[in-house]
Amino acid sequence: MPSSDLPAVSHAARGEPGSITPLLIACTLLLSVALAGAAALLDRTRRELDAAAARAEEIAELETVAQSIVAALAEDPTPDADSSFDPVWSRVVSNDNRISLEEISSRLNLNTFPDELFSLDECSALFSPGAPVEEFLRVRSTTGLFSTTESSSEYFAPEAPASLFTVYGYVNPNMSSRAIVERFLACRMGPADAALLAGELTAATGDAPLTREELKTITDQCEGELWPLFCIEPPLNVNMAPQTVLRIAAAYLLRAESASRQAEALADALIDARTAREVDGGELRAILTAKGAGSAALQLFGTRSWFWRITVAGPRLALTRVVCRLPGEGGRRFALLENRLVHTLEGGGRR
Amino acid sequence: MLSRRSGEGRKSEGEQGFTLAETAVGLAAAAVLASVVYASALSGSSSAERLTRSVIFDMEVLRLDQVLRGGVARLATPFWLPAVRSEVTRDGVRLFHLDGESDRYLELTRSGSRLEIWDGRHRELFPSVEQVRVRSRARSRFGVPPLSFDVTFVGGERISIVVLPGAFPLPGDEAALVDGAADLDALF
Question: How far apart are CA A169 and CA A162, in angstroms?
Fold first, then answer.
């Protein structure tokens, strides 16, 4: 058999010219593409991890700042009165609008304030012409409590500032009507028990305002469930309430006197006093007595603030917290009620 | 046909080639190598399949975690209520006060092995969920009552996601609180 007819095993075996260069180039290219893809993936993962770490760091910083504001509120050197003279405000102002602090309970409470207050002439300008106060009161009595001020905005005039209204506040049986007290009680117990207890509480406030001890005696078994939602604390801090709110509240207190000038004088006296200094309990009592408001006014007017909203803005996120001061124990205990983190950059969303 | 003789003949003539024995040894070595490669490839394929399944499962868990945290953070229970308002349905649960509105809710329903989370606008589906348990305490001794989601997947894997709502009830008198008392316990 001639050697040329032998089966070929390989080019090299036959001594023919051949090259593996194209194969090597192909392999190198393939390897390069694979490595480039892996590098891109690693880089993206690293950037995502960096972003997550930066976000966690920013959240921790926002929480620390918010906590420091609560600590400053708790460390108020005059815990019996809160006002714009308190040291916490200098801390807020010195932070270039990064921190916002709002007192959100010394306003017209849509759930706890009596019908008579909203029916005053002084309040009529706040209501939308298309939705009179009667409609607001009817909805309030039939559908229950408003969860947010936004949920009742249709009843109020567009020009009425949202800062006049609130849903944050404790229920003071000395100030709220039986229907309102029953509405809140029904959130914590059965309707029959709520009706019975609301009746007892209202009857007890007939002659004189309830004291803390009397409230404790009447609520007895369920006190643990009702405290601190039900307490004998005045909702409006005269140091912090908007002027419009003070004037409406003064008009409500002195409505029986049929003397609007007397109500105006009371509101003016409170505004003048708080402009100059922090009004404490003793001065408040003196002003109320001097202006003929009587001790009943102390169920509505006080010198302490109960609910606060703190907003801390960072480069990418903003943290909003609502905290409340718990009654008793010197007013130095606060509870967290809301905690919201919002992306401030475009395209972000809530956590 | 090659033979030792002919091979020797070619070699003696200065030609190159393989004898039958050399070819047989080569083929045997190739067969052994191929069997090793095949076994490795088979094992690699099985590992890749397990890895793929694991990655898909992890991604579903991460998505579920993200959707639940996002949804529950939007729940704003008014502070005067003792707990997150909820309603247990035939095949799920509704959590009310979404975005602070009393009539809006976050709904979790399970049918077959599919969990659906619906916020009234967007629907998220999770295809391999076997069971969900949602629990919450009325009020916590520590102030803030979280919602707990225990999810069992089709393969038997179980995860627990504990989430804080955006707003929660007013903490009460600590003496009146009972640890472990559940306000909501829905299994579906």
Answer: 16
For the beta carbon of residue B162, count every other beta carbon within 10 angstroms: 13
HEC-encoded secondary structure of B72-90: HHCEECCCCCCCCCEEEEC
Cα(B94)–Cα(B88) distance, integer angstroms: 6
pTM of the model: 0.79
Q: Please answer yes or no on whether B80 and A336 come within 8 Å at the CB atom.
A: no
**What is the ipTM score, two decimals?**
0.79
**Residues pairing with B158 in the sheet:** B152
Q: Which residues contact A234 (CB under 8 A, 6 or more apart)?
A: A172, A175, A298, A299, A300, A301, A302, A304
- Between chains, do B16 and A14 touch, taking CB under 8 Å as contact? yes
Radius of gyration, CA atoms only, chain B: 32
Residue B180, pLDDT > 80, answer no
Contact A152, A110 (CB under 8 A): yes
Chain A residues near residue B97 by CB distance under 8 angstroms: 147
- Residue B78, min C-alpha distance to chain A (Å): 6
Which DSSP symbol is given to A328?
Answer: S
Q: What angle do CA A106, B141, B92 make, to 5 degrees?
A: 95
What does the domain layout of chain B look like in residue ranges? 4-50, 56-187
Q: How far is it, in rounded angstroms, from Cα B93 to Cα B70?
A: 17
How is residue A149 annotated by DSSP? S
CA end-to-end span of chain B, whole Å? Answer: 75
- In chain B, what residues touch A224 (CB-CB under 8 Å)? 172-173, 175-177
Regions of chain A with pLDDT less than 50: 1-4, 6, 8-9, 12-13, 15, 346-351
The Cα A150–Cα A132 span in angstroms is 17
Q: Which long-range contacts (CB under 8 A, 24 or more apart) does B121-124 make?
A: B124/B63, B124/B67
CB A58 within 8 A of CB A314: yes
Judge if the upstream peptide bond of residue A228 is cis by omega within 30 degrees of 0. yes
Query: Are B6 and A3 in contact (CB < 8 Å)?
Result: no
- B 68-127 residues inside an 8 A Cβ radius of A: 69-70, 73-74, 76, 78-82, 97, 100-102
**Is-contact A184 A170, C-beta < 8 A?**
no
Beta-carbon separation of B143 and A335 below 8 A? yes
